[in-house]
Amino acid sequence: MAKTFPQLITSTFLMIIFFTFLHTSTSETPQHYFSQNLSPEEVGIFKQETLSHLHFYFHDIVSGPNPTAIQVARAPTTNMSSTGFGAVAMIDDPLTVGPESSSKLVGRAQGLYAAASQSEACLLMVMDFVFMEGKYNGSTLSVLGRNAVFSDVREMAIVGGSGVFRFARGYAQAKTHTFNIKTGDAIVEYNVYVYHS
Ligand SMILES: *[C@@H]1O[C@H](CO)[C@@H](O)[C@H](O)[C@H]1NC(C)=O
Ligand SMILES: *[C@@H]1O[C@H](CO)[C@@H](O)[C@H](O)[C@H]1NC(C)=O
């Protein structure tokens, strides 16, 4: 049956709307219902990136009644490995301003490390630095890196962050301050260089 004039107008109008929608939705924004482009201002970034340098000491306590690093897993062959290959430790290590254990606490290193090499003492580090001081309180930096513990300076990647460290990327340099061969406890100096919003 032929369309009446008003029906024709209506269907033409609907087609124009449809093709306009199709055009804008295909040419301007991709058809993703879970993503959209934003300007930096919309997520609160009004200025250029900041570059920060953080300096602190990391206390890895494996001995005594209150260890901050505990082994949680090992392979059946770990005991036979000169490098402890396969051992995994969970950590909640204090981060302090100075190297003394009584020094002011500024945060903690929470995560794990695992012996990842069969030929040298080398750890895979997967941890968050969570800070407790002033404007940094509650903000985190995420570290993922290779830590050859007997090398003078080890460099690890900062792969992200939260709070004041949103959009973080950078690197951390670790240098052993003291290592107690008897107990296995270590104090490590960290210098962290990070760009963030
Ligand atoms: C491996 O070492 C752990 C801790 O030192 C010990 O408890 C365990 O019995 C050892 N296992 C073997 C197979 O030697
Ligand atoms: C850090 O934040 C926590 C929880 O929001 C609060 O309890 C604590 O007092 C804060 N610490 C400092 C040093 O501001």
UniProtKB/TrEMBL annotation:
Location, primary (coarse class): secreted
Residues in the signal sequence: 1-27
Presence of keyword Secreted: yes
CC annotations in GO: apoplast
Gene3D superfamilies: Allene oxide cyclase-like
Keyword list, A-Z: Apoplast, Secreted, Signal
Coiled coil: none
Subcellular location: Secreted, Extracellular space, Apoplast
GO biological process, one term: phenylpropanoid biosynthetic process
Similarity comment text for this entry: Belongs to the plant dirigent protein family.
Function: Dirigent proteins impart stereoselectivity on the phenoxy radical-coupling reaction, yielding optically active lignans from two molecules of coniferyl alcohol in the biosynthesis of lignans, flavonolignans, and alkaloids and thus plays a central role in plant secondary metabolism.
Subunit annotation: Homodimer.
Entry protein name: Dirigent protein
Species, as recorded: Rhamnella rubrinervis
Lineage start: Eukaryota, Viridiplantae, Streptophyta, Embryophyta, Tracheophyta
